[in-house]
Every structure is written in C-alpha cells, then in structure tokens.
Design a protein that fits this description.
It contains five helices and ten strands. The chain is α+β, with helices and mostly antiparallel strands. It folds into two domains: about 110 residues, N-terminal domain of MutM-like DNA repair proteins (Alpha-Beta Barrel), CATH 3.20.190.10; about 120 residues, Helicase, Ruva Protein, domain 3. A four-stranded antiparallel sheet has the order 1-6-7-5, covered by helices on one side. A four-stranded antiparallel sheet has the order 2-3-4-8, with helices on one face. The chain has a two-stranded antiparallel ribbon with strand order 9-10. Keywords: DNA damage, DNA repair, DNA-binding, Endonuclease, Glycosidase, Hydrolase, Lyase, Multifunctional enzyme, Nuclease. It catalyses: Hydrolysis of DNA containing ring-opened 7-methylguanine residues, releasing 2,6-diamino-4-hydroxy-5-(N-methyl)formamidopyrimidine. InterPro entries: FPG_cat, FPG_N, H2TH_FPG, Ribosomal_uS13-like_H2TH. This is Endonuclease.
C-alpha cells in the first residue's frame, strides 16, 4: 500500500494539470463519469493515503488501496485495471486498481487535516490526546491508525519503532510520557525522510529493519511477526527495542 510520502510525490507529478479542462473521461470505475466531462481541475489535495481531485461542485477521491498505481502520459493500450483516466489538452493521467468516488465538496470540510503527518496543519498535541484515549492499543496499531497518523504505513511503522527503541506490541498506555512524545515526533520526522529518499530513489537503501533479518545495532537476528489487530508484518529487535 502506498504510504503518505508516495502520495505526495504523485500529487507533484499531477500538478501540471491543475487549471486545465477535462476533455475526455474513461475507465471502469462504477459511477457516472459525465459530471467530469468539461470540468476544470481546480486543485489537488492529499490527506494521508488519499488524493482529492477538486472541481467546482464536487471532488474525486482516489485511494490506491493495497495494489493501486498511476501513470502520467504513459498509457498505450486498454487495461482492465484502469479505474479512471482523465485527458487534458496538455496530457493525461491514469489510475489503476484503486478506489474512485465522486463526493460533494463539503466532504473536504469534514476531514481532520491536522491528523496528516506530512501536512503543515499537523497537530502533535491532538495526536497525543488521541493516543492517551486508547491506552490499551498496541503501538503498532496506533501508528497505522489513520485517524491519528494519517499517511503512516507499515514501512514507516517499523522504522519509527526501531528508531525510538520500542517493540511493536507495547501498549500505548505503558509508554512513558517522554517516549510517547518521541513516537509522535518520529512518525513525522521519518515520513519526511521517506519522502526525500523516495524522491531520490534510495528509500530501500535506508531501511534499517523493514524486511531485514539482522539488527544493524547489535547484530542479533530480527524478529518477524504479524502483530496487532491488523496482523501486519513487524520487524524488530528484542534486544534494542523495549516491550512496554
């Protein structure tokens, strides 16, 4: 599943289409596409793993889910996984194997933009309040909770927990106050590191524990375990990460 930084990079690649008129719509997304025809793409907004194409009376929400992808000016033949394609005078973009929904504009007003770890509106105090309200939640689940850390995915989760020395099955309520603040801070810090490394095509070179077998600190074999309510893959070191 693409994480928040990858969605921001996608937004950057689509920016040239803002202010342009849609001249052709295609794809097999299950909704009436006629409203998109002839509309001006006013803005592109992202919230965590979601992208919003904003038009005058509605917006199109794109979620790439687990295996979604996109391309710009690259499609050469029909594809059954094509959910939505928008053609403009200066090019086209395509979304594959994803969720696409048309929503009223007032939906944007309902979004808690302060929960997006990569947003200028990010509010760490609000994140701390939400975490303290769920003391029995495992930290591995907390980091993947999009209501708290919108944009954080499994890679960021694993790397953040290694950075701060916390085992993924630790309970939020057992973390000392200083460690809880460190968790919140590093969720944002690592997301920006992810963004820069992804932009430079060197992200995987910087992974310390995600998909790795040996701890880079002590050399001990890493634990690979499916943790939390979502049973997502966790990679961690029992020696250098404390279970709270």
């Amino acid at each position: 599943m693409p994480e928040g930084p990858s969605i921001l990079l996608m937004k950057e690649s689509l920016q040239k289409f803002t202010g342009e008129k849609v001249i052709e719509v295609s794809g097999n997304a299950q909704f009436d596409k006629d409203p998109l025809q002839g509309k001006i793409l006013l803005e592109i907004r992202t919230f965590g793993k979601q992208t919003y194409l904003v038009f005058d009376a509605f917006c199109a929400r794109i979620h790439l889910l687990m295996f979604g992808s996109y391309s710009v000016d690259e499609q050469t033949k029909p594809d059954q996984s094509l959910r939505l394609a928008l053609k403009f005078k200066n090019g086209s973009f395509y979304f594959y194997t994803c969720s696409v929904k048309l929503l009223p504009l007032d939906h944007l007003a309902q979004i808690d933009w302060e929960a997006d770890v990569l947003s200028d509106a990010w509010d760490p105090q609000k994140a701390e309040k939400k975490l303290k309200a769920k003391p029995q939640m495992m930290v591995c689940d907390a980091l993947l909770d999009q209501d708290i850390f919108s944009g954080v995915g499994n890679i960021i989760k694993n790397e953040v927990l290694f950075r701060i020395g916390v085992q993924p099955e630790s309970l939020v309520g057992n973390l000392p106050s200083k460690k809880l603040k460190e968790l919140i801070k590093e969720a944002r810090n690592y997301s920006f590191d992810f963004l820069e490394w992804k932009r430079e095509f060197v992200l995987k070179k910087h992974w310390l524990v995600h998909t790795k077998t040996t701890c880079p600190k002590c050399g001990q074999k890493l634990i690979k375990k499916y943790t939390g309510l979502g049973k997502r893959r966790s990679f961690y070191c029992e020696r250098d990460q404390k279970l709270y």
